[in-house]
Amino acid sequence: MKHDVATKALLDIDEQIDSLVKQIELLSYVNPTNIEEEKIRFFSSKYLSDPVFKYPEINFDRFKLHRALFTLPLEQIEDTTVKNLYEDIIYAYSGLIQCIQTIGDGKKFYYNCLRCFGTPTENDVENAKFILHFEEENQEEGVFKPKYTATETEVFFKDYSKKYDFSYNIKYSDKISAIAMVLNNVKTLVLNSNHKYSENEIAVLTNHEIGVHMVTTMNGLLHPLKIFSHGFPNNEETQEGLAVFSEYMSNNLTIKRLKELAYRVIAVDSLAKGYTFSRTFRLLHNQYDLEREEAFYITVRAHRGGGFTKDYLYLTGLKKIYDYYHAGKDLSLLLTGKVSLVYANEITTLIDKGLALPSKHITDAYAENKNANKKVDFILKSLK
Question: At 189, phi and psi to the nearest 5?
């Protein structure tokens, strides 16, 4: 790749952003460290006294980071499309820093999240309520029975990962609100040591966490531009959409799972209505008959930090990727890294200029559509 002056300026700016944003993995900071203790306290208060969550210490100087981002000489990037992309990137990271610095600060954090992730529209809430009308699978079936500890589950992940030409770390934690998650910056899969996994959950998580999140982590590291690894603006919706879509393509997407995504939309929508933690919980548990453990964790996901709106994006992302695929478009373009659907043209431009590479690792589930669930198809087609 020839490095003319303009290319060198872009690579320098990208390199500087890389060194600045290494510290800002929002999920490392927004997960409460005392979920289990607070759950016990909340349940014994008869769902009336809101949990008081504690969060990890923030180990960077927020103001310095902002200043360094905004003094980058973007005017040196000659290509207007690429320059605009990098402007968007700087504003997006600045927003994430503001999110992190206000974690636990109630409304302040919530408003910063609104800027970064938005909130469900009426249409999104209607879609969620539509899904909730459907009967879910019988949870007594063997495939849904909790069977495996996190340590036993690791074996299934290792076996599934033989399909891919990369390696990653696996760790356990009792401090996460999800049952599994990928930490992009350290190439690590974290399994929740408090959770007992069912066969269906393992099938879902291997496709979702490894088949998409780890695939885009590994592809993202291969580009001359580091931004593919750290993430384009609003990449969460596309990334989660791709990840849930892999569950669909591998025939593991259930009505129960779709309903879980729908409950997340309802929970995030309750933030906009000003609901407290206990009120959101009671909405899910009493009004929607959601079992109390599940209602608690969905409420934690939405209320952590002071109101974390990101969770509604799983459903909107899934619908966008479903439509994108059925329009015959190329999914591998969206696997190039932590990228967003809205920047598909910019990704193509960067590949053409030799500043990015086509995806090396491709999600195994995308090879053929194995979904045999007619009801799931009907729901996804019907979403507005």
Answer: -95, 130
10 Å Cβ neighbour count for 75?
Answer: 8
In this structure, of 16-20, 153-157, 237-241, 301-305, the range with the lowest mean pLDDT score is 16-20
Structure tokens at 2: 């020839």
DSSP assignment string, 160-178: HGGGSS---EEEEESS-SS
Q: Residue 124 corresponds to which amino acid?
A: D
Look up residue 164 and give its two tokens.
Answer: 């891919």
d(CA 193, CA 172): 6
Phi, psi dihedral angles at 170 (to 5 degrees): -125, 130
Burial 82-106 (b: 16+ CB within 10 A, else e): bbebbebbbebbbbbbbbbbbbbee
Query: If you average pLDDT over residues 57-78, what whole number do you get?
Result: 93
Burial class, 28, CB count within 10 angstroms (exposed 0-12 / middle 13-18 / buried 19+) = middle
pLDDT tens track for 315-373: 999 999 999 999 999 999 999 999 999 999 999 999 999 999 999 999 999 999 999 99
